[in-house]
Amino acid sequence: MGRLSLKAVQRQTCKKRDAWWTVLLVDPVATRLLCVLARFKRVTPNGVTWSALLLGLAAAGFFVRGDRTPLAIGALLYHVSFILDCVDGKLARLKGNGTVFGGWLDYVFDRVRVLCCAVALMGGQYLRTGNAWYLGAALAVVFLDMLRYVDALQIYKMRMSMRRSIETLAAERQAAAATGRAAAPVVFLEDLLREDPDLDPDEQRPSEVPVIDLHARFRGRFPWYARVRRALVEHRIRPHLVSGIEFQMAVFIVAPLIGQILPVTLVAGLLLAAFELAIMYKFWLSTRDFSRVMEKFDEHPAAARLTGVPVKGRHRRMRDRSISAPAGSGLEKGI
Predict the structure, then answer these.
(1) Which of 5, 123, 180, 200 has the fewest Cβ atoms surrounding its Cβ within 10 A?
(2) In the predicted model, what is the mean pLDDT of residues 255-267?
(3) Is the pLDDT reported for residue 136 higher than 90?
C-alpha cells in the first residue's frame, strides 16, 4: 500500500460517531500510527489485536505492584493498548481484510484485558493496604463491564428484530394492496438522522415514503436532547458520554495516574450505571413506539388477504418471536 494522506485515512477509517475519549484522545494518534503500519504487508489486524492484548497484560503486571510509579506506567501501557485496539479495526477497514474471527477475537481480548487489569489493579491495592473495599471494587468493575456489553448486545438484537417486524408487515401490506407500483421501502427516522444530523425530525415528508419513528416518545419527553445530540455529532461524539470506554479509561488510566483508585472507580461506576439506565429507559419508550406502529397496521386489514391470517394475530406472533431471538443469531454484529 502506497503513501496515504492523513485526511484520507481519517475519512476511510474513523467512525461517524464514537466515544469522546476515542475522538479526542485516541483517533489523532491512532490514524497517524495507521498511516505507518498500513505500509507493511505483514502487519495484519489480528496481529495488532494480539499486540494490544499483550500490552494490556503488561499494564496489569505493573498495576499489581501497587506503587505510584508502576501505576503510572501501567496507565500509560493501558492507553497504548487501547490505541492499538482501535488501530486493528481501522486497519481492517482500510485494507478491507477484516474477518468475522477477527471481530470475535477483538471482543474477547477486550474482556480478557479488562478482567486481568481489574484483578491486578484492585488486588495490588488490597495487598498493599489490606483494604477489603478493593476486592469489592474489582468485582464491581468486572460486573459493570459485562453488564454494559451484554445490555448493548440485547438492545441491539431487539431493535433489529423490531425493525424487521415492521419491514415485513409493511411489505405484506403493500403487496396485498396490489397497486401495481413498486413497493416503497420503509425508512426509519433514526437512519435519516444518522446520515444527516441537521435533519428536522418534525419535517413533513412525501406520503409515498413511509418514515417510521421509533424514538418519538423519547424526543417528545426530552425536546432538548435533539440539540445536544446535534452539537455532539457535529464533532463525531456520540451522546452516550459515559460508556464502557470512558469507564475503562477512568478506572485504568485516570485513577492510577492521580492515585485515587476507589473514589474514581465509584464515580465512574455511578455515571456508567446512570447512562445505562437512561439507555434502558429510552429503549422502553422505543418499544412503546414499536407497539404503536404495529397497531397502525391493524387499521389496514388488506395485508391479511395475502396469507389469510388476520394481521393482528400475525404481528403479535412476530413480536413474540422477536423477544426470544436466540443468542448468536448474527443480530449482534455492528455494535
Answers:
(1) 180
(2) 97
(3) yes
Half-sphere exposure of residue 233: CA atoms within 13 angstroms, side-chain side: 15
What's the pLDDT at 273? 95
CA–CA distance from 50 to each of 57, 74, 79, 81, 88 (Å)? Answer: 11, 18, 15, 10, 9
Distances in whole angstroms, Cα of residue 284 to Cα of each of 114, 217, 288: 29, 10, 7
What pLDDT sits at residue 304? 35
Q: How far is CA 23 from CA 20, 225, 232, 277, 315, in A?
A: 5, 21, 11, 24, 41
3-state secondary structure (DSSP) of residue 171: helix
The mean pLDDT value for 77-87 works out to 96
Selection from 300, 325, 333 nearest residue 161 by Cα: 325
The total of structural domains in the chain comes to 2
Distance CA 86, CA 159 (A): 26
If asked whether residues 235 and 187 sit together in one domain, one would say yes
- List the grid coordinates of 212: 417510521
Verify that 169 and 246 share a domain, yes or no: yes
Backbone phi, then psi, for 164, in 5-degree steps? -65, -35
Range of the domain at 75: 1-131
- Co-location of 161 and 193 in the same domain: yes
